[in-house]
Amino acid sequence: MDLPEAVRRSIRKFSMLSGGETVLVGLSGGPDSTCLAMVLKELSPELSLSVRTLYVDHGLRPEETPGEIRFARELSAGLDMPFSVRNVEAGPFAREHGLSIQDAARRLRLAALEEEARETGSRLIALGHNLDDQAETMVMRFLRGSGPTGLAGIAPVRGQFIRPLIETERKDIEAFLSQRQVVPIRDPSNLKLDYLRNRLRVQVMPLLREINPDLSRTLAHTAEVFREEERYFSILVTKALMKLISRKTDTSIELFLAPLEAMEKVILRRVLRRAIDETRGLRGIGFPHVEDIITLLKEGLPGDRVHLPGGVRVIKKYSTVLLTSEEPVRLGTYSLEAGGEVLLGEAGLVIAASVSHEKPSFEPDYRYSAVFDVGKAAGPFTVRPRQDGDSFLPLGFGRTKKLQDFFVDAKVPREERDAVPIVTTREGEILWVVGHRGDERFRPTDETRTFLILRATPARA
Question: 394: cis peptide before it, omega within 30°?
């Protein structure tokens, strides 16, 4: 088999290169990356490529790393390719973020490659994934319960990352290196059976190949079919998601509920998957968790929620659904004097209190402005979160109501209730539920001569 020609066909098929690019190769010294660097060197005159290499030291195998770096440096020099080394610390990163060592190393490796590419002006980053890697990935994702998106396998091209060997079998890579009398580095961790991928590679895949000798190509073809379908659905999902987002941050995304509830499940799965993937703080939620979210949307009541790995919560509200990894906010307790103000950092509000001997010229809305009779509402005041047993007499309601019942009737999401500021009098009676309602007992009358004016305004960043 002419491996460079096969790689050339894959490059053309997936439009990986147009010619004239600078390509950064992730070079570990293993068979795949070694073969990749050598093949790109052979193709570089035809494609006018400028190829350079990078070794990423994950800080995990200090005994083997120096030899690997030496091999990678010598190989790069022999191929006349600029060579660099970057160091990352996968162990501490894994512990800090609650990741497996493999996942932490992968994330840091990709980040190091992207940084090196930026600094060296490399438009593309070439990785050494091969056809057998593709097959193993599909089986591994199938066993973990992935849906069609996961079963689409390893993308030949994703952003600036390309995988020229994605249609090349491992045995052909080994034969190519043997013909050129190159002995690559063998990573001993690839033989440890405590890693799922290694168990698949060593134990499971050989058994499956007894049933289907052409297993890798069969699974790769299946992955390609899934990718083609996913490209079609991706267009539909993009259009749908643009109309669904109520608000979005790095750690949360809120979606309008009504369109989701009416959506066909085949599209709904993909919309939720895309929303999760595009929100940095939500990544890591798998296909089974998406099914849990769908159950919440279809069967849950407002205020219901599901808890997912990584501290992610999905909360069904009255008109939206919130996916967030942010910690629930609970307001602190603050003192407020007449004539002063207090910053509520948790709520992002400033509450100011002033006293006037003239009736205010504005009409208070009792959401963000309120007026009370000073003779009835004695200070100093306290601003605090809700407490068990809280009750008050809401303006215009006519009878005392438990604060808990008021929040339910006002459709205040359960997740947000601890962040609602409650202003109380010196005696501890609720004066104002900020953002919602004042208490009828302290409302000014025609006999009121001194007025307490409270205002809640957004805190300045």
Answer: no
